[in-house]
């Protein structure tokens, strides 16, 4: 690929810096401070440190832009047209259990549209990135979604509602429908990486409900720039606000939606 744009340099720079902080904490998880936000909803000192690094970096580089971040919530900026959407550690549960499958996710929203995203897994140094109109990349390799058309050949990723969350019964029905038709199902525990892996062709598709904007904003542009498609599971307008997301190539998306509809 050619030279990174200054926007990409800023986003990747922040993600790498946060990634270094996460790697340090990952090396010492036995000492990690953990608290609970709700049932099966943990936050650690590593989530907070990573968020701090990203907030500081991006505020310095683009003063005035607003933020939506998982841990500190909405931070209004003076520039009303730009907002960073940030998950400082996507896959906290993996992280806490010493599993090297977690990521920093940063998206830029411009006038309500996601125009750029980076999803960085510092444990394996994989930087997924895309800017609208210029393709999706893993480090310096161009990405393309998988070409498989049939569910019978497909590996599909999903996310399970945790203990205490609504939607278990519906999820089990959906799982039953999809599982009965696919070669394999995976639940790896980081929605931003699930989407990035769809972009990379490692998964043929992905669905999950009740995600937050910070879980999916960056992955969304990465999937689209890799030639993939995203839809709101129930046909709603705005997947970022409902968080009910399904992704894949055009054929796979249609087949997945068919199965999810049949679960109703
Ligand atoms: C979680 C992960 C997980 C998804 C959960 C999210 P977090 O994010 O993306 O894959 O199933 O719904 O909350 O809390 O680890 O940032
Ligand atoms: Ca969380
Ligand atoms: Ca998340
Ligand atoms: Ca998180």
Give a written overview of the molecule.
There is one protein chain. The chain is an alpha+beta fold and 264 residues long. 36% of the residues lie in helices and 29% in strands. The protein has 2 domains: 6-142, Fructose-1,6-Bisphosphatase, Chain A, domain 1, CATH 3.30.540.10; 151-262, D-Maltodextrin-Binding Protein, domain 2. It has helices spanning 6-26, 45-61, 92-96, 168-179, 191-199, 213-225, 239-242, 250-262, and strands at 34-38, 41-44, 65-69, 73-75, 79-90, 103-110, 113-121, 126-131, 136-138, 141-142, 155-158, 184-186, 205-208, 229-232, 245-248. It has an 8-stranded mixed beta sheet, with helices on both faces. Helix 1 (6-26) runs antiparallel to helix 2 (45-61) and helix 5 packs parallel to helix 6. The structure holds D-MYO-inositol-1-phosphate (IPD) and calcium ion (3 copies).
Give a summary of the structure in a few sentences:
With 264 residues, this protein is an alpha+beta fold. The protein contains 8 helices and 15 strands. The chain has 2 domains: 6-142, Fructose-1,6-Bisphosphatase, subunit A, domain 1 (Fructose-1,6-Bisphosphatase, Chain A, domain 1); 151-262, D-Maltodextrin-Binding Protein, domain 2 (3-Layer(aba) Sandwich).
Q: Layout of SSEs?
A:
Layout: H1 6-26, E1 34-38, E2 41-44, H2 45-61, E3 65-69, E4 73-75, E5 79-90, H3 92-96, E6 103-110, E7 113-121, E8 126-131, E9 136-138, E10 141-142, E11 155-158, H4 168-179, E12 184-186, H5 191-199, E13 205-208, H6 213-225, E14 229-232, H7 239-242, E15 245-248, H8 250-262
Parallel strand pairs: 3-5, 11-12, 11-13
Antiparallel strand pairs: 1-2, 3-4, 5-6, 6-7, 7-8, 8-9, 9-10, 13-15, 14-15
Helix pairs in contact: 1-2, 4-8, 5-6
Bound molecules: D-MYO-inositol-1-phosphate and calcium ion (CA) (3 copies).
